[in-house]
Amino acid sequence: xxxxxxxxxxxxxxxxxxxxxxxxxxxxxxxxxxxxxxxxxxxxxxxxxxxxxxxxxxxxxxxxxxxxxxxxxxxxxxxxxxxxxxxxxxxxxxxxxxxxxxxxxxxxxxxxxxxxxxxxxxxxxxxxxxxxxxxxxxxxxxxxxxxxxxxxxxxxxxxxxxxxxxxxxxxxxxxxxxxxxxxxxxxxxxxxxxxxxxxxxxxxxxxxxxxxxxxxxxxxxxxxxxxxxxxxxxxxxxxxxxxxxxxxxxxxxxxxxxxxxxxxxxxxxxxxxxxxxxxxxxxxxxxxxxxxxxxxxxxxxxxxxxxxxxxxxxxxxxxxxxxxxxxxxxxxxxxxxxxxxxxxxxxxxxxxxxx
Length: 355
Ligand SMILES: *Cc1c(COP(=O)(O)O)cnc(C)c1O
Description:
D-amino Acid Aminotransferase, Chain A, domain 2; 23% helix; eight-stranded mixed beta sheet; ten-stranded mixed beta sheet; binds pyridoxal-5'-phosphate; alpha+beta; globular; 2 domains; D-amino Acid Aminotransferase, Chain A, domain 1; 355 residues
């Protein structure tokens, strides 16, 4: 039998929880009492430690600050209606984390360290999981290079952390989307499929310009023609045309969302045909003109399903009446029901926090 991973736990002397309201928390601003920290050196992961959340120290020569060798994940823990804590599909995030690591020439994380480290940390800060509908505990694993020398090369040392942040309620308001044609998010051969910092830094300018024009988000298009739709900021995208749900296929420039995979399964269970294939903007426009474009939405861990009420392509406005939709609201309803333990978890998406 494999040895159970040894995690050292140093508890905080004074919990911040009594002074923190877990209601109406903005995303990503409040963190729990503890964090997990592990260093990688001499070709090995060292002893993982759960310790009080706090500053970390580094020299200004830290390689990540200069060359961006860094990756992350986003996962959620919830309580079911009976109060039991679960983490949603952590193994899928674990696999994606190592796919990102390999692309960025970073060491892979052993499954036990990632999963048991996360489970144990959530267990230590269990009382931080909000017990309210639409609230959750956001889990942020990340890894970055820690060599202290300037020069472009893969680092030989790394740090891996897991942070926890209570959040919610997260209402996904219908959004207005600008189809981006000037800037490119990712190209084949690049790092679009990796959850790596640079992908987000390079997208900020496009978001800012779209927001200045009154839009909430951009819909990225392919790097060559700017005609094939790809995904949104931190969301994959689905279009329902007739009785078929279409989402762009994964060809290396798109992040393989865990929510995307969940939604594909749920749509199929609801009797829809799901196609993963290249989707040209002209096909969306033609469907809109013909009245067969029924629904359009983004999928991601933060907001689960975000309806698109307007799509703007070169000034051509496609408006969608989200009040009339039935398919994606049903997907959202079922996803919430599974997470809250009101519908059977037949796919074993829910991972129990209590061992
Ligand atoms: C994280 C992310 C998604 C959504 O992935 P989920 O696993 O569903 O949260 C989609 N696109 C990008 C670019 C992302 O960073």
